[in-house]
Specification:
Structural class: alpha+beta
Helix content: 40-55%
Strand order of the largest sheet: 2-1-4-3
CATH topology of the largest domain: Leucine-rich Repeat Variant
Largest sheet: 4 strands, mixed
Number of strands: 11
Amino acid sequence: MPPPKDVVKIAIQMVGAIPQLIELQQTKPLASVLKDVCDAWSLPNAEHYALQYADGRQTYITESNRGEIKNGSILRLTTSPDQEAERLYNGIRSNNVDVKTDSLKKLASLSQDVTFAQEFINRNGLKLIFCIVEEGNDSGEILAHTLKAFMELMEHDFVSWETLSAAFIKKIVSYVNMNAMDASVQQLSLSILENMVPSSRLLFDLVKKEVTVDRLLTHLQVTNAQLQLKAMALLIALLLAATDSERRDMMEYLREKNIRQFIHKNIIHSPEPLGDEMAHYLYVLQSVSLNLYDRRMRTSMDPYSQEQRELLQSLRQAAFESESEAPTSNFSTERRRSLCAKEFRKLGFTNNSNPAEDLRRAPPGLLALDNMLYFSRHTPNAYSRFILENSSREDKHECPFARSSIQLTLILCEILHIGEPCSETAQAFYPMFFGQDHFFEELFCICIQLVNKTWKEMRATQEDFDKVLQVVREQITRTLSLKPTSLELFKTRVNALNYSEILKLRQTERLHQEETLAVPVLELRERLKPELLELIRQQRLLRLCEGTLFRKISSRRRQDKLWYCRLSPNHKVLHYGDVEEGVQSPPIESLTEKIPVADMKALLIGKECPHTKEKSSGKQNKDVLELAFSIVYDVEEYCLNFVAPTRYEFCLWTDGLNVLLGKEMTSERMQTDLDVLLSMELKLRLLDIENISIPDTPPPVPKPPSNLNFCYDFSHAEQ
């Protein structure tokens, strides 16, 4: 007979005593349970004790979290949080350096527990920490433990960052600005400032004023990877919290300091592999930089603006400079207007008499004009060649420069996600972005020449405009997917991917699709599916056995804390637990938390997850929703919440968990993998009938012969 739902069988340990095996009644008050445990070991003052998990984070057991205790859990009898908080509070005030150091070290560890943190803060413990920092008498290990404890205490949001004193903040800033300072202290100080920046405008202004961009760049140039990472984190926090004008000024200053070239050389191409956190910060830096074009992209051209009209005229004059040298002053106004209209038509504007009308559409708005001007000024030979070459073609076959530029600018904005908010989890950045100052403009210069090249290859006319730009979009996206490391490499690869290559790729894909649509082939696909689906299921379970590193994400900031989850080799238990930065694949024994697969009830994804509902503060981040999933387990229906590092990992984990739950795999990755495997298997099976058309219906089976006399009788041969 199974035990009642409100009873769990657990073990309780105590140093120097034989462990107790008890049946914990969840309806019984925790104080009574503690008294029974203390009485069994003849311990007085049961109120001075508490229970905590023996493994993992060693969280204190309270009335609010006792429901999470599972059958087979191992607890430990220890000093109660209020007694421990009092002891550490007195230890930190001690004049004995060793006692003080040990107390701060223990405080940094215990402060991760919300119950202990509340008790310590209630004793005005933060004031002690402020005094240690503000007085400045301690350094090295003591200071590092103090700052670590402060970070952990603030993590629980009991105290607002805005309550910090000016003296405390100045001390933290001074640790960052000092040259001769312990690296661990500087890392913690940078993390504290990173947390302060998004908390309030006042704190942002203070940090921005006291910690200069130059100082952060100095930290970026050190060999200590963790210090480099924390400096980048603070720089990104400042950029995200800044106003548009402040962000623009900061990015301009970073450009002057050649930050991109430094990142390209010393971080992206560093001998050490790039971590997920740094990859995310580089993605954000790229996104923030590209989003500076958003304002121009969304601004329509004002036909009454003298400045903008002059820019248009300069574009015309750069193309027809030799012709413009003729003394137009002798021409009548009507003649000059007619000449300008003719030249604007040669430039490829649809509205010859008023080309500003072509730039009224936003996006791409004035950004298209900026790109055309950049192309004409920085590559004048290529610009003149483009215009003159098309001016000499027949009207139908000329490639319209202006119209192409406007559409190409829009395509590049869509491909590079200009104007879209930064993702909290994305890590996809283009290495070549950091190798070039004017990346967007230079990319446009390469791609507009690609438009002209593709136009000629397609022998296009004006009616084919959309088709040409569709091919160009495909050329750009296919080349970008290869992640070229420089614009030169991008230029080489995109030009190699000419129209004939695109046609071959399309034809291959189409033929593959056609040959797999024949009725006999479709029947064969259906027969192969079960075997290949089983193969995918096994692969998903193997991936879960390898495990994945997940990040904890709070509503306030991207967390540094990591945890790992993996499936046991026998597929019966999910093991998980917190891990330190840099740990790639922790042994299963070190993951102390467990969930039996038999206890798993359901899989939730996206908006159904409790951790996405908690954070739905008006503007829910789309990326987190796409990567979030939760496991509902146990009779009490607890949830283990995940945010996958990538969409690929999300698909693998949701598929694997569905397999464990006995459900169908539903991710898009499963369909992709199945298509690839089916394609390979079908090609192998159909090799013998290559170049033979497969009929839709099987050939008729011939009638049996009237007699079987044609069979050879082997018995006569033997005689």
